[in-house]
Amino acid sequence: MEKTVTVVGLGLMGGSIAMAIRERTDCAVYGWNRTAAVAQKAFEDGVLDGVANDETLAETDLLIIGLYPEATADYLLEKLPKLKDGCLVVDLVGVKKYLIDRLEEPCREAGIHYIGGHPMAGREFSGYAFASADLYDGASMILVPNASSPLWAVDELDGFFRQLGFGTVVRCSAEQHDRMIAFTSQLAHVVSSAYIKSPEAVRHNGYSAGSYKDLTRVAKLNENMWTELFLLNQGPLVTEIDEIIRHLQEYRDAIAGGREEDLCRLLREGREIKESIG
After folding, report:
1. Domain spans of the chain?
2. What are the Cα distances from residue 61, in Å, to 96, 113, 223?
3. What is the pLDDT of residues 80-99, one digit of tens each?
4. Is 177-277 in CATH node 3.30.200.20?
């Protein structure tokens, strides 16, 4: 795909997308960031062909938005009149039903092809300074079609993201996405944040190894972004929190009651499930 691409939001995710586009495609790349100095730095680094404005936006073939959920919807609704007919739009946001509900019909009416997107990659640091063209190598990209996105547009984005290095592209409904992400991502961040609040955490040096590092890595999160993500997906996330509380209670009761057979069974069940699903 040799087209004009604009990336809005040049943090870890958007910055990495822009870098991958620059290195792995022949597309012209423009970018915008709320902090203008970040976009200017990306231009000076050679990542961007220029800093995006309304003029470049009007020539954009593919618009990629990497802002917080509400800001993503607000930005696109504001800029819809400036986009050319048939422009493809994809976001990088970790909740989908909220965005589909706000954007599907306005985009369809405007002749804009919006596809929900969610790259399943990241790290515990944020910002353009930590962006990398290889962040998404081998990762999964989730695409969420809707009434504003014809099949050819979804197919085109599928090929585009594979060209950037993604190893898998998954297509699903907004409801399926939000239900699965509540389990695979959001719950993990809640558990990590709760776990690190043990009063023993401050004394972990000399007593911790891989399991501690694995479980606490994502506690170092952006609390503003994750608060918004959690509250916009509260139904599926609360369901998962209730489920893990139920299982923790089973372990707690077996240990407190000295019930060796029950505890062994619970641990065996967990091991067998992990072995069966990978």
Report:
1. 4-172, 177-277
2. 22, 10, 33
3. 999 999 999 999 999 999 99
4. no
